[in-house]
């Protein structure tokens, strides 16, 4: 009898009259699962239950299109997830093409991984894509494997009789040894911001002042900014912890106040143009963003990566990612003495261990910490010697 465990419960699988039967027993006890399998076999043999028609296994191309269509609807509140799947699907479709899903084995997934790691990245130009001299990184391949895993899970939930080729006992994700520990110095920060465009300067400064994620800054709406109370509320994120109040520094408050004024001015101009002002007062459009897309103010700017790359190049600082502004804030917060529990909440993390990915104490801070430790131990030794001195004198008498 074919009994196997998946998702913490036992399933059974066998062939009956040329058709494959796969059923979850919903049992965690293996003996009970075997009993249920025997009962199911008996019921099928006696004709008490009709055997459901086996679902036809789709091709990879068909299954992927169905998955992406579902993801677009399912992740409407998190469009970045859908866009990530779309990006990852390109390499997957190029490799697996029209292969039947049941032909995609763990070995075939391993071949995909090897093939991808031997390829070079591309950059999009005005008319075509150009190949770079940088090989595809493990992190990129892992994002593609995550898309493949999610696609198979979606197909399995639709009752397609399959096993996911990516899992604990099948093809696994690659090890990523690409942890970033880049922290800006104040001198680098000043040179970089001096070369940044106005929008990039405001985005990067807000990240350096509050530790917010880039997309959290892009999606700031006027209705979520509370200048009098010195915070803005971020309603976005996959976890409850990500949806939080973000305290404003004086610098951050000044940037958002200016952005609010600009948004009100745009709203006023739009209202004047459409002759929709009833009483001479204009409110900021509730659907407008403080960092609007140039072509559509009702959408946030998608990203400022090109402006960031130019600013890094022109400022001649050591290359870093825009996200490293968040790393920099977190590191400075640790050095300022903020405890990890509080820091995790401020960064919008549900787990404290996630903070360790962002907080990287500088060598100077580590040196000062060791100096403090040495001074503390030295004082403890002196205090101990002073406490022992009277006892030593008494013993000598």
UniProtKB/TrEMBL annotation:
Keyword DNA-binding listed: yes
Q: What is this protein called?
A: Integrase
What family, per the record? Belongs to the 'phage' integrase family.
Entries under Gene3D superfamilies matching the protein: 1.10.150.130, Intergrase catalytic core (1.10.443.10)
A GO molecular-function annotation: DNA binding
Tell me the ranges covered by the Core-binding (CB) domain, including all copies: 58-156
TM regions (residue ranges): none
Q: Which CDD domains match?
A: INT_Rci_Hp1_C
Q: Does the keyword Membrane apply?
A: no
Q: Where is the Tyr recombinase domain?
A: 179-371
List, in alphabetical order, the GO biological process terms annotated in this UniProt record: DNA integration; DNA recombination
Signal sequence, renumbered to the chain:
none
Which InterPro entries does this entry report, sorted A to Z?
Answer: CB, DNA_brk_join_enz, Integrase-like_cat_sf, Integrase_catalytic, Integrase_recombinase_N, SAM-like_dom, Tyrosine_recombinase_XerCD
Which keywords has UniProt assigned to this entry? DNA integration, DNA recombination, DNA-binding
Q: Which Pfam families match?
A: Phage_int_SAM_5, Phage_integrase
């Amino acid at each position: 009898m074919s009994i196997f465990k998946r998702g913490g419960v036992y399933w059974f699988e066998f062939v009956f009259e040329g058709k494959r039967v796969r059923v979850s027993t919903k049992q965690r006890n293996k003996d009970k699962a075997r009993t249920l399998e025997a009962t199911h076999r008996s019921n099928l043999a006696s004709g008490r239950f009709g055997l459901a028609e086996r679902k036809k296994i789709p091709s990879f191309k068909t299954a992927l299109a169905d998955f992406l269509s579902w993801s677009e609807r399912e992740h409407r509140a998190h469009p970045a997830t859908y866009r990530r799947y779309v990006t990852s699907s390109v390499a997957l479709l190029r490799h697996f093409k029209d292969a039947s899903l049941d032909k995609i084995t763990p070995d075939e997934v391993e071949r995909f991984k090897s093939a991808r790691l031997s390829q070079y990245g591309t950059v999009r130009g005005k008319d075509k894509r150009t190949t770079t001299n940088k090989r595809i990184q493990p992190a990129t391949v892992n994002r593609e494997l995550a898309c493949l895993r999610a696609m198979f899970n979606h197909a399995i939930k639709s009752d397609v009789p399959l096993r996911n080729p990516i899992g604990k006992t099948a093809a696994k994700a690659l090890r990523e040894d690409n942890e970033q520990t880049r922290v800006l110095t104040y001198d680098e920060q000043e040179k970089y911001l001096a070369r940044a465009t106005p929008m990039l300067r405001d985005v990067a400064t807000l990240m350096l002042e509050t530790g917010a994620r880039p997309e959290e800054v892009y999606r700031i709406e006027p209705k979520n900014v509370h200048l009098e109370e010195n915070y803005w509320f971020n309603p976005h994120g996959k976890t409850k912890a990500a949806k939080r109040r973000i305290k404003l520094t004086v610098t951050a408050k000044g940037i958002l106040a200016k952005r609010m004024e600009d948004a009100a001015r745009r709203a006023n101009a739009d209202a004047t143009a459409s002759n929709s002002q009833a009483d001479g007062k204009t409110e900021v459009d509730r659907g407008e963003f403080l960092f609007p897309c140039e072509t559509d103010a009702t959408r946030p700017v998608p990203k400022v990566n090109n402006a960031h790359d130019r600013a890094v190049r022109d400022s001649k600082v050591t290359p870093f990612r825009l996200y490293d502004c968040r790393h920099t804030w977190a590191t400075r917060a640790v050095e300022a003495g903020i405890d990890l529990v509080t820091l995790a909440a401020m960064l919008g993390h549900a787990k404290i261990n996630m903070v360790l990915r962002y907080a990287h104490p500088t060598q100077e801070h580590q040196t000062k910490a060791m100096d403090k430790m040495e001074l503390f131990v030295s004082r403890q030794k002196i205090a101990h010697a002073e406490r022992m001195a009277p006892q030593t004198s008494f013993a000598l008498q």
